[in-house]
Amino acid sequence: MSQSNITHLSPKERILIALDVDNLARTTTLVEALSDHVGGFKVGLELLNSVGAPQVIQHMNRLGGHIFADVKLHDIPQTVGAATRALSSLGIKMINVHASCGKASMEAAVENKGQALLLAVTVLTSLTDEDCIRLYGKPAAEKVLDFAKEAHEAGVDGLICAASDLEAVNRDEALKSLIKVTPGIRPEWAPSDDQKRMLTPREAIVQGADYLVIGRPILNPPAGVGSPLDAIARITEDIQKGLEERTSR
Ligand code: C5P
């Protein structure tokens, strides 16, 4: 699947809730309450390692929530391929790998992804330029593009990008066709928490994001906003504005 297949997505389908919890009881409450109002749920290493990947995924499938397994695979091709196959067979919508695991490992993931979308993480936004130069010999903005190009050559469906990477990535014609999934989203009414380089939902969509990963602004909205469903309604409206702005450009 490529970017061209997802232009029809409605605003609500573009929201992926970051399910940063560590138990099935809280998972159940959130998925039951919110799954009809968003595109899916990002489950990460905390929940998958606290409860177990098959248990979490099978449980969420029974509840009806689409799953992005944020497992950030990084290993030799045989292992990445086998882990991707195991996850895909559980029935999930998206899986990710670190682009730094190399082209052969990403290709192994692509071969084994089944019906899931395979996304590549470029440079973690927790790394400073100094870290990036020490690790990869280049500042982050340059290394993101290198990793994105290699991921594209390996055949991935999309990239996990910091919002600040979107403009440079989308300037490259080949990379434009990839699906872009973006965390670091903060509506104007939400506190920044520990996020440093944020965009609002509207801004991220205008910059070319396809899916937005959003956690705390939905799970713990400010009192003035109301419930998680009230937060989703506001975010959906903001995404709609972004889509209108994007198409009128
Ligand atoms: O609560 P918040 O909206 O900040 O959650 C964002 C989610 O996206 C968290 O699960 C966080 O770990 C993840 N993430 C991120 N920045 C990245 C990569 C992942 O915030 N660069």
Structure notes:
By secondary structure, this protein is an alpha/beta fold. The protein has twelve helices and eight strands. It has helices at residues 24-34, 45-51, 53-63, 77-89, 103-111, 129-136, 140-154, 166-171, 173-176, 201-206, 216-219, 228-247; strands spanning 15-18, 40-43, 67-73, 94-98, 117-121, 158-160, 179-182, 211-214. The chain has an eight-stranded parallel beta barrel with strand order 1-2-3-4-5-6-7-8, surrounded by five helices. It is globular. The structure holds cytidine-5'-monophosphate. The site of cytidine-5'-monophosphate (C5P) has 13 residues, from strand 8.
Helix-strand blueprint:
Elements: E1 15-18, H1 24-34, E2 40-43, H2 45-51, H3 53-63, E3 67-73, H4 77-89, E4 94-98, H5 103-111, E5 117-121, H6 129-136, H7 140-154, E6 158-160, H8 166-171, H9 173-176, E7 179-182, H10 201-206, E8 211-214, H11 216-219, H12 228-247
Parallel strand pairs: 1-2, 1-8, 2-3, 3-4, 4-5, 5-6, 6-7, 7-8
Residues 18, 20, 44, 125, 162, 183-184, 193, 195, 213-216 line the site of cytidine-5'-monophosphate (C5P).
